[in-house]
Amino acid sequence: METGMNLTWLNAQKGDTKQITALVQKTILEVYPDYYPKAVTDFFCLLHNRNRIEADIEGGYVWILLCDGRLVGTGSRRDNHITRLYV
Fold this sequence. Notes:
39% of the residues lie in helices and 30% in strands. The chain has helices at residues 17-31, 38-47, 50-58; strands spanning 7-11, 62-67, 70-78, 81-86. Strands 1-2-3-4 form a four-stranded antiparallel sheet.
């Protein structure tokens, strides 16, 4: 087990949009095709596009996980509903 890692869980800011979108899109495009038809993968890419992510950030719903200052995960939460959880 690696030691000395600094993990930080923060509310995302508008300036994080590009990195969050890249993480989400990369995960969808690399993982989803192994489990879903292309149409479903395409749907999720559209559902989690930059504009929607940015709107959720502006609403205060998006959180990011940083490891030693580097983005390693993201999740969105509205009340008790968790969505868009990607690592």
